[in-house]
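Quick note —
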Amino acid sequence: MNEMQGRQMDDFFRFFREITSTTELEPLYRKIVEHAKEILGLDFSTLMLLNEDKSELIVRDTVGFPESYVGTFSLTEGQGLSTHVITAKRPETVSDFNTETRFSVPPIVFEKHIRSAICVPMMLEGEPFGVLIGHVLQRREFSADELLVYQNMGNLAAIAIRNATNMLMLRRARDEWKMTFDAVPDKIAIIDDQYRIVRMNRTMAEDLGISEEDAVGEVCYKVVHKTEKAPSFCPHTIMLGDGMERTSEIFEESSGKYFLVSVTPYFNEKGKPGGSIHIARDITTQKAAQLEAENERAFLQTIIDGIADPVMVINSSYQVQLMNRAAREKSSRGSPGTGAQFCYQISHQSCAPCSGQEHPCPLRAAAEQQQPITVTHKHKGRDGEEFVVEILASPIFDEIGCVSGIIEISRDITEKIRLEELKDRLGTKVAQQQKEESILTLAAGIAHDFNNILMSVLGNAELLKLRLGKSEKELALAENIVQSSERMAALTSQLLAYARGGMYRQQVMPVEKAIREALSMVHKGNALKAVIDLDLPGDLWPVDADPGQLNQALMNLFTNAFEAMEQTGGRLTVQAFNETIDAAWECSTFRHEHPAGEYIHLVITDSGPGIARDLHLRIFDPFFSTKFIGRGLGLAAAAGIIQSHKGCISVQSDQGKGTAFHIHLPRSVGDVSQTAAGLSGEKDSASAILVVDDEPQITTLLNEMLSHFGYRVVAAASGSEALDLFRKEKEAITLAILDIQMPGMSGRDLFKELKALKPGLKVIISSGYDEKVALAGMDAVSPDGFIKKPFRVELLQKKIREILET
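Predicted structure written out below.
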């Protein structure tokens, strides 16, 4: 080793001692560049380090270049010798920058008149960390020994910089930890397994009145509790036993404070608890606030429990935070437990919030509208039964004005809704009844007046027949008038049946017989295309009915069915069965209420084209028909007759699916009895008959009829005139025929007067109304007979003979 090499070695070891003893980065950078300049005889000595993403080399210190370059001057790949060395990962030199072509030369090199340079990478674990670069003003060829020395200096510098950086980070971490440790408001101590304090933060030391340094090594319970042994509740003692982390609430009697104490174990090399990190938080203020909140909540609970309606407080997450007693009793889940319960679970037994028009969410609605809202919901109780509630939801606003929840007050309005629906039903029923009564009154009036006119037509036609002798042509014409009159009379009878005035004389009768008789009368002609299926059990209950009226209703229904099938044929099914209805019910067609009880249920089904749903109620209106050949009164009359018998008729049908009529008739409590009445008598006597009618044509007609049979007739056009005539011929008059509806003194009043004058007088009431309507208001004394206008001569003759011979 020559003298120069020995001197370089001495310089290198001095460099080594200097940089390894320096732990601060800035002084370290300075020593590196200064020693490098001195050892290699450089005009410029610079230390450059890669940035974090290794995209740039940045000057960290320099001797020769401006100080302003430190931390600001940088080079990227392809710029200058330093980036070339980083890329190549080996030392490089430049003999003359004027001829350099491997990389672009930074302008500063030429500005400073630099000719040559030497640069080595600072390597760490095989990767470049930065560079040491030296520049000289004179052209220079650096030797291999110089490159070796400079490279070793670079490697040592890299290690020293890394160590200094780690030391800096360690100091910063320690300082930050100490600052954090002392800044924590909780009292913290690290305690070993012998109860000695290893470390204590400033908060705890100041609270105990001891310095942090003096606390180290002291026994914790002597310093903290001023006792000679650990207290029984000591969490550190418990932790040493089971090695478990734990948190407990402790009241310190000496200070009167509450602490939340947590102990977290740390373990020694044997896996045993070596001590704990002991943290005590003063929660005295929180405990007081908690107690106050609990008292306020209890007070609030007492207040809302006094409210009769259910009350719930619900937060923005649909969680129920408070319920009053009424809500707990009414809800499906009672009071909220320890787990979160949601309003939709409690009120609806649902797993999702309410939505849709039927159940709009009160929380969302109140939040959107920012004001109280009212909605109607169906809730479920504990037994699963639904009930209707009206909910008033008032929003709760937080400190920034956002809706954080609602106060929900609900009221059970199930009964209110039921009463309103009942009121609406009753209102509809009353309106329907008023409409029906108006139509019925009109129908009955028309039928009555029509029958009076028909009486004249039919009676005069029959008198004409009696006087024509044997002239067949004229007799045929008169008979045609009679038959047409009878058809017109049948039409008015249907109209009166619709007006529910057609129930004459009820008797206990079997339904099966009425069905078979009605079918036998209408199953003719085109009706024979239809097949009939009867399902009539032998144990059917009897009904109270007028045979003729019930027969008329059934005939109308069967005729309607046959006409529906007359084009293509089909099947008519008639079923009857006994039915017991346990509760009062409403006839859907006319909204009439019927009592619970025993009923005969008839079902008349045809396979015809059916009836559209929107026509189901209209088919029972008079003169309404879906058929071109419809008579117009058949179903209306049938409905009137069935209602007069306290029954119900309804329809079940749809287009293309046939039609079924359902009829309910009350069961009779009597026994079926069949009577046959025969009439016999002699020829008409010459007794005087009083005829009273305000229609002159009818008076004249009856006079002619009765005179033809040999009776003497006393005719009167009013009640007062009839009384005068009767007083004069009281002994001769044995029978009176009275019109029931006359101006002035009615037939009813005249009847009473005549009976008072002569109790044994026989009286026949004649009216265009049916018997039920005509005889209404006759009190206890009834007439001896009734004959409905228009009537045939033979019927009048038969009725008179029957009464006079009784």
